[in-house]
Fold each of these.
Amino acid sequence: MDYNKKPLPPVVGKIGFGLLGVGLLLMILAFVVDTKRAYFDYLWMYMFLVSIGAGSLALVALEYLVGATWSTPFRRISEFLASLIPLLVILVIPLIFGMHDLFHWTHESTLASDPLLQAKEPYLNVQFFLIRTAIILFIWVLFYFLFTRNSMKQDISGDPLLTKQSIKFSAVFAILFIFTITFIAIDWMMTLEYHWFSTMFGVYYFAGTIVAAFAAATFCSVMLNENGYLVSKIKNNNYYSFATLLFGFNVFWAYIGFSQYMLIWYADIPEETFWVMMRMKGSWSYFSIGLIFLHFVIPFLALLPRSSKVKPKLLVVMSVWLLLAHAYDLYWIIMPSYFTEGFVFGWSELGFLMFAFGLIITVFKIRAAKTNLVPVRDPKLEAGLNFHLN
Amino acid sequence: MIKNLINKIKEFDTAEDKERRSSKLYGKAALYNTPNQITEAAAVVAGSGYKKFDVYTPYPLHGMDTAMGMGAPKIGYVSFILGITGTSLALLMMIWMSTIDYPNIIGGKPFFGLPAGIPITFESTVLLCGIATVLGLLVLFSKMPKLNSPLNDTDFMKHVTSDKYGLVIEADDEKYIESDVLKLFADTKAYEVQDIYFRESNLTTKTPLFDKKFTGAIIGTAILTAVVSYFTLNYVLYDVVPFDWMRQQGRIDSQSKSDFFPNKSGMREPVTGTVARGFMPYEYAGMPDSAVKLLANPVPVTKKSLERGQDRYNIYCSPCHGYFGDGDGRMRDQFPKPPSLHTEKAKNWKDGNFFHVMTNGQNVMPSYAEQVSKDDRWAIVNYIRALQRAKDAGETDLEKAK
C-alpha cells in the first residue's frame, strides 16, 4: 500500500467557492424578489442536500453492515459527502420560518374549514412536525459523528475493533435510516399536498437518495482515482461495482416510481389522482415524460452493457447525469405545488442549484484538506485494493 | 514366491497398461492445489499459445476468463436480444388479447392500458432473458450436454469436482509436445500430472434422451404425477378448507338476506324514476281503440325487415300460433288454442291492432314488450301480413310474378 496524501488541486476550491458565492447572491436576490418562490426553491435545494448527505451516510453504514470490501478504498469519499449533515441542522432554520409559505396545513383558517385536515391534526401540527425534524436531524448528526470518529481514530491506531464497533452502529443506523428518510420525505415533501398520501412515497425518495449518493460517490471516486489521488490508481473491478449498484438502484427507483404511478392509475380515485394530474397540467406533462427518459431510460441504456460499466469517462458523465436527474426528480416532486400552471426554471432556481453544488464541493474540499482520502489502516483496505469480480 | 509372481504379472499388465495399449491419448491433465496456482497456470498456458485446453474447478473462479485469454463474454448479447423479444412478445400478446381477441372495458380504462401491461412485460422480459442466459451459457457457449467427454469417470474428474483444480491440454493441439507440456506443468507447480486415454468406440454419439428406459421413466413420472394430483386435488383435498375451490365467497347472493343494509335486503332497489336503457313507455296501454286509430307502422316492408319478422315470429309467436299463423302451434292441446290469423277479422285488422295485442296482451296472451323490441314487433306485423297474403295466393299470382 503506497498512499501519499496529496492536496486537491486549487481549481476544485475555486469552482466550489465560485458556485457557492454566485448561488448565495442569487438566493438572497430570490428571497428579496419573490419570497414564496424562494422558499420552494430553498426546500428543493435542502432536500437535494439531504439526499447527498444522509444518502452518503447510509452508504458508509451499508459498507460496514454487509462487510463490503470493494468500496473500502473509497469510503472516505462518502464520509466527506456525509459532512453535509451537520450543515443540514443550520440550513433547516430558514425553512422553519418559511413553513407558512410552504405548507397550507399550517394555516389556522385551513385547519378550521377542512375536516380531513382536522382528522390528520394529531400528526400534522407544527409542534410535532418540528419535534420530528429535530429527532431525525439529531439521529443523523449522532451517527455521522460516531462513524467518522471511529474512521478517523482507525487512521492513527489501526484498531480492528473500531470496525467491529462501527458494524454494530451500522446495524442500528440501517433501521433508523429507513424510518428517518421515510418521515423526512413525508413531512417535508408529501405534506405540500396534505390531502394526498402514498405509502410508497418514502421508498420512492429513499431510492432516489441512494442513487444520488452513489452517483456523487462514483463521480468523486473515479475523478480522484483517475488523477492519482488515491492508492496507486486502482484498476480492478471497483468501478464495475459502482456502476452495477448505480444501475441497480436506478432501476429500483424506476420500479418504485412506476409502482406508485400504476397503483394510482389503476385505483383511479380522486384523492390520489389529483397529485398526478398536477404533474400532467400544461408544460408539466412534458416535464413528467422527461423524468422517465432522463432519470430512467437513458441511464438504463447507457449503463446496461458490461463494457460501459468500466469506462471511467462514461461513469463520470453518467454520475453527473444522475445527480442532475435526482435534482430533476425532486423538482418534479416539490415544485408543482408552487408552479401550478406549468414548470418554470429561472435564475432563481439556477441560483439554488448552484448553491447546492457549491456547498457540496466546498465541504468536500475542506474535509479532504484535513483528512486522508483513503482509510489507510482499515483492516478491509487490502482486500478492497485487490478486489476482483471476474 | 507365487505372490511375488502374481504381483509382477499385475505390474506388467495393469488395467492402465491395457487401456494404454488399446486407446488414444486425449491429453495431459494437471491437478493444482490452490485457486491462485491454477489461475497463474491458465495464464501461462494461454500465453504459451495453446488453443485446445480447458480448466476444471469445483466452483467458479473469479478472474479465470481473463487468465485463459477468453476476452469479453458474448452472452450479454444473447440475454439482451431474448430480453427484447420477451418485451415485444408480452406487449403484442396483451395488445392482441385485450383489443382484438377479447376486448373488455375494465374499470373505465382503455382496452389496452400500458401501465397495466408493464408488470407482465417486465416479467416476460426477465423470464426470457433468464432462460436465454442459462441456456445460452450451457448450450451455445459451453456446448453442453457433453455426454461423451473422455474425462468422464476419470480420477481427474473426481478430483476437480471436489478438492482440486485441474487443467487439461488436449493432445491434438497444434503446439502439443509432451516434454514441453510436462515442463510447463512442472514450472507452474502442478501437484500431479496424468495422461487421459480414451477409446473411440466408447465415445457414443447416441443421446440417452431417446433411451427407452430414460424416456419411459420420464413419461411414467409424468403420468403418475398427473394421476396423483388429479385424485388428490379432486377427491382427497376437495373438502379441505384451504382448498375450498372458491366456494366460500364474501359476496351477497341475489334474492338473499343481508344485515349490511338497513332493510335487510341483499338487493338494492334502483333509484326512483330509473328507466332502463332504450326503454320507451307504451302510451296506449289498455287503450286498444286509440292504438288502432293512431299507431302507424314505422318499419318499411323490405326483405330485411321481413326476414327479421320471420325470425322473431318463429321464436316467439309460432309456439302457439303455428309457423303459418293457423293457430296450430307446438303448444296445442296443452294450452288454449289461439284464433287463426287468417280469419276475415284478422285480415281486416289494422297494423296498429296487431301491435297493440303484442305490446299489451289480449285474453290469455301476455305482453311481449319485454321480449321483443318495438321495431321487431312491427317487423312481426309485416311478416303476419306476408303470411296472410301467402295463404290467399291464387293461380293469377304466378302470372303476375312472371
Note: The beta strands of chain B are 24-32, 53-56, 165-170, 192-198.
Amino acid sequence: MIHTEIAIVGGGPAGLCAAIKAAESGAKVIVLDRNSQLGGQLIKQTHMFFGSQKQYASHRGIDIANILISKLEDYKDKITVMLDATVIGLYEDRVLTVDQGGKYIKIKPDTLIIATGASEKFQAFPNNDLPGIYGAGAVQTLMNVYGVAPGESVFMVGAGNIGLIVSYQLMQAGIKVKGVICRGPKFGGYAVHASKLRRLGVPVMPSHKVVYAHGKDKLERITLIKLDENKKEIPGTEFDIEVDVLCIATGLTPLAELLWQMGCEMKYISELSGHVPLRDKNLMTSLDGIYVAGDVAGIEEASSAMVEGSLAGLCAAKAAGHIHPDFEALVADCHKQLYDLRSGPEGEAIRKGLSKAELKEVGL
Amino acid sequence: MRIEQHPIITFNKGRKVQFTFDGKVYEGYEGEPIAAALHDAGIRVLGHTHKLGRPRGFYCAIGNCSSCLMVVNGKPNVRVCVEKLKEGMAVETQIGRGDIK
Amino acid sequence: MLERTGVPTKENIESVTPLKERLSKGPVAIIECFQEIPCNPCYTSCKKGAIKELIDINDRPILDPEKCNGCGVCISNCPGLAIFVVDESYSETEALVKIPYEFVPLPKEGSFVTGLDREGKPVCRAKVEKVLNTKAQDRTPVVSLIVPKEFSMTVRFLSLNDHYSDNTIVCRCEEITLGEIREYIRRGYQSLEEIKRISRAGMGPCQGRTCSQLIMQELAAATGKRLSEIKMSAFRPPAVPIKLGQLLGGDDHE
C-alpha cells in the first residue's frame, strides 16, 4: 500500500492545476491518469481558449497542457505522476485501487481530489451503432492527436461549443463538414464559433435532428428532419445527406463512478449535465477531505475547470495540514475568477445548477 | 488516411511498423493506438456483436466505451482505441464476447 | 438572427462600423463580437487602449475608432477570430481587409484569391497584399486582401480558388471568358459598349443580363473607377429573342 498526503485522480486541466497548487502548499501529491500522457482533453484542443490571462486565454489548449505540465515539473520532489494508471475502485476506507499496466496497486491518501472529467452523451436513432458514427471527442482524438482523418465528409450533430469547434477543426484538417445541426431553434455555442464556420461555407442548421442512419457495414447516409420551434418533427420534411462520418457532439456528462463508489451525496442537476456531487464553496464533497474539480463536478468550460482545480488543490492541501502562505488571497482570487467566468448571460444555467449543488457554507 | 498538412499541429509519429489484421499485413506507427492505424487503412468494422451480430467500430476513442474490443495476439477484449501498436502484432476482428483460453 | 444563423445581421455590422470619415482616414479594427461571453484578450492585447476596459469580463468589447490605429495585434489574439482590420485609405477605389486565416496552405503574396462574405459566398476577386505569420501571431496568420472599396465591409474570408480567374466564363451565351475580357481591356477597350461590340459579350440571347454586371466589375477593377462610374451600354429592341417571321409578318405599316 502506497501512502500519500493527496491523491488526485485525473491529470486534465483540473487535476494538473490542483496538483500544482497542492504541491505549492507543501503537500506530497500523487497524480493518477489512465492515459500515457498528462493533459486530459487539452491535448486535442487546437483552438485558442476564452477567458482571461489567468486562465491562459488566447493560448491554445495543446499549449496550455504543456505550460501546466512544465509547472508540475517544478515540484518534482513533491509530485509523483502515475501514467497508464486507471483507478478502478475507491472504497469507504479511502483506499484507491489502481490498475497500472496489469499491476494492481493500492493507494491510501489523507485527502483526495477527484478530477475525472466527463464522458460523451449518446443519441438514440435507428442504426446509431454503425461504424462511422463517433463521439466528437473521438473524432478530435483521431485527427488532432494521431493525425488520422476520421473520414471523407462529416456531419455534426450538436451545435454547442464542442460541435462548432470540432467542425472548424475538421475543416482545418482538410475534411469537409457538410453541416451542423441542433434541435433547438438557436445553436448553443458561442456565436463567434458559428460565424467562423459560416464564413467557411459550412451550413449551421438549428431545428433539425437525425432520424435514421443508413449503411450496411458502416455509415453511408443519414436522414434528417426539420423541427418546429418546440422541437417537434415536421412531417414530410425529411431529407438525406451522404456522409461517411456522423459526429455526435450533444454534450458531456460527469464521469462520477468513483464518487458513487465512495458514497458521496449525489444529485441529478440538469444544468450541470448529470449526476454531480454536492459540494461546499471550496469543492469539498459530503465526505470530509474528498474534493472534486472540473467536469466531474458539473460540465463547464476548461477555463473554470482549471480554476476549480487550483481551488481544490489549495483546500485539500490545507486539509492535509499544509497551508499555502497566500492561502486566503489565493482562495479569494479563485472564487473571484469563477464568479467572473460564470457571471454573464452564457453562465446563467451554470449558476442555477451550482445553486442546487451547494452542500453548505464553510467558514474560512 | 493521414492528415499530411495541418495549420496548427506537427504530428510526432513513431517508427513505421508492420502488423496484421485478420491475416493481412498493414503498416502503422509504433505507439499509436491500434484503432488509429486501422482507421488509416480504411478499416471501420472492428468486431461483430454477440447478440445481434451487428458491426462495431470504435465510439469514444479514449477508453471509455469499450466499443472497440478486438482480439490482439490471441487475447480477446482488447480496447484497441487505447492499446498501443507494436511491431508484428496480430489483430483480429472479434466476434461476440471472445473465448477464454 | 445571429443566434440562429451564425451570420451577424446588417444591424450587428452597422453597430460596429466606424463613421465614413474615420474609415477613409486609414486602418481601423472592426470587432464583430456581438455576444456577452467571458473573454477579454482583445482588451489586454491592445497597446493603444482603444478597447474600453472590460470591467465585467462578460462585457462586449467597445472600440474607440479614434484611438485605434489599425495595427491588427488584436486579430490573432481573439479566440473567436472575430476581429478584422479595414483600411479604406489604401487607394482611390480599393480597400485593404485584414483577415485571420488558420488554414494551410497560406495564400501567396501577390496572388489572386476570391473574397468571401460572412456566409462563405464569393463576392469579388481579391489580391493578396500581405501574409503576416510571425511568432507573435502564434499560428493565426493574418492575410491582407485588396478588394474593391464597396466590399470592404463584406469580404470576411477567402478561398484560394480564384473563382474569377482567366478561364472563368463571363458571358455564357457567347462563351466569353474573363481572360478575353481582360485582354480587351488591356488593348484599350475601356467601356462596356466597346467591349460588347468587340467581344459580342452581351449580344447573345440573354442580352447581357447575366454578364454585364461581371464585365462592369472587371472594368472598375482595371480602370480604378467605382462601379457607379461605369456607363451602361445601349439597350435596343428586341429585349428578348423573337422569331424573324414575327417581324416580317408584323403589323401593317402605318
Note: Chain A touches chain C through 39 residues (CB under 8 Å).
